[in-house]
């Protein structure tokens, strides 16, 4: 952070120039990230995204192919390597140098769409998703015409620097044009997308997601400034993310029962640990279906989801690494009864 940043922040604060103050603070955050002080840079970005300030409505009229997305939902935690790339997008957009088209590729549940929402919050932009139901048409040549109209619609928005366009699962339009399995009509549609990306207003941020990167049209890949791989989770990453998800959900459901040690043992039984989207659904279901009068019922339910076919006894649970207290929680049988049965097995 430079002296001029401090002077400007004080100046804009005393002038109550909120817009200029936010712009200066944003520049400070980008500078911290550029100098590898990501923790402080991310913290400033988070404060800016939570600040309730007036943003002009970018799209007031009826839009044929775009639908506004609510970005208020919670995000899925990301490993550091992916988080660094996402924050790199924030930096790139901040430079205003026309680096504005990004492709998120990875398996379902890896956080691609949620990361687009997070970017919209950080950049204080409105997020609009392309509605493929209206875009794709069965009439010959109509889909290509619709795509041309879509990009014309995008390029003519009144406040291009205040929106992000999301092509969620762009696979519907971007499969390899040379593939014999691809319909000729969709090949023409892909060509229309190529032209649209080439002529995209550089002040508009565009994000596309795909689950089928290996079948993606290579010419289209080259149109994106950066491809971010969301498959880069290690099993350790996912175990740590499971704990973050658990803590967030326990606060939402106002649970008091916390046993991280037992939770870790249950998650360790998952091989492999699923990606965050599925992981969140599994943990959320276990909590939502649990008895509110039993603090640890969700752990018992989570174990049953992890081992739905388990038909073993207390000895089997003990061999899995569960203590007698753990087994009491999982089976809802008293420790004394469990101990007697285990002692009986040793006779």
Automatic annotation (TrEMBL):
- Similarity annotation: Belongs to the AAA ATPase family.
Q: Which UniProt keywords apply?
A: ATP-binding, Nucleotide-binding
GO MF term list: ATP binding; ATP hydrolysis activity
Q: What is the lineage of its organism?
A: Bacteria, Pseudomonadati, Spirochaetota, Spirochaetia, Spirochaetales
Q: Write down a Pfam family by its short name.
A: AAA
Q: Matching CDD domains, A to Z?
A: RecA-like_protease
Entry's InterPro entries? Answer: 26S_Proteasome_ATPase, AAA+_ATPase, ATPase_AAA_core, P-loop_NTPase
Q: Which domain of life is it from?
A: Bacteria
Q: Which residues form the AAA+ ATPase domain?
A: 98-234
Q: What's the name of the protein?
A: AAA ATPase central domain protein
């Amino acid at each position: 952070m430079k002296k001029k940043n401090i002077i400007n922040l004080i100046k804009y604060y005393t002038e109550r120039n909120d817009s200029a103050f936010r712009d200066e603070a944003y520049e400070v955050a980008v500078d911290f990230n550029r100098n590898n002080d990501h923790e402080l840079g991310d913290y400033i970005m988070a404060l800016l995204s939570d600040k309730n300030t007036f943003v002009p409505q970018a799209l007031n009229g009826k839009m044929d192919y775009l639908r506004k997305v609510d970005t208020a939902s919670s995000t899925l935690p990301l490993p550091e390597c992916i988080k660094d790339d996402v924050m790199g997008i924030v930096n790139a957009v901040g430079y205003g140098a026309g680096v504005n088209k990004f492709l998120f590729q990875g398996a379902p549940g890896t956080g691609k769409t949620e990361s687009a929402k997070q970017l919209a919050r950080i950049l204080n932009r409105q997020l609009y998703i392309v509605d493929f139901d209206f875009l794709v048409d069965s009439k010959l040549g109509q889909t290509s015409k619709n795509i041309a109209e879509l990009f014309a619609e995008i390029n003519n928005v009144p406040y291009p620097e205040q929106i992000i366009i999301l092509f969620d699962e762009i696979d519907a339009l971007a499969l390899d044009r040379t593939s014999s399995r691809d319909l000729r009509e969709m090949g023409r549609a892909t060509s229309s997308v190529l032209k649209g990306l080439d002529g995209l207003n550089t002040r508009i941020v565009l994000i596309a997601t795909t689950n089928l990167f290996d079948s993606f049209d290579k010419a289209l890949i080259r149109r994106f400034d950066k491809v971010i791989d969301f498959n880069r989770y290690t099993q350790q990453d996912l175990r740590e993310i499971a704990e973050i998800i658990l803590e967030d959900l326990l606060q939402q459901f106002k649970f008091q029962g916390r046993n991280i040690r037992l939770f870790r043992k249950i998650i360790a039984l998952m091989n492999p640990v699923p990606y965050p989207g599925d992981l969140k659904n599994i943990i959320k279901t276990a909590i939502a279906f649990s008895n509110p009068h039993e603090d640890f019922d969700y752990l018992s339910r989570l174990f049953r989801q992890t081992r739905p076919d388990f038909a073993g006894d207390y000895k089997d649970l003990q061999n899995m690494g569960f203590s007698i207290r753990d087994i009491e929680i999982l089976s809802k049988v008293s420790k004394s009864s469990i101990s007697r049965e285990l002692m009986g097995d040793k006779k």
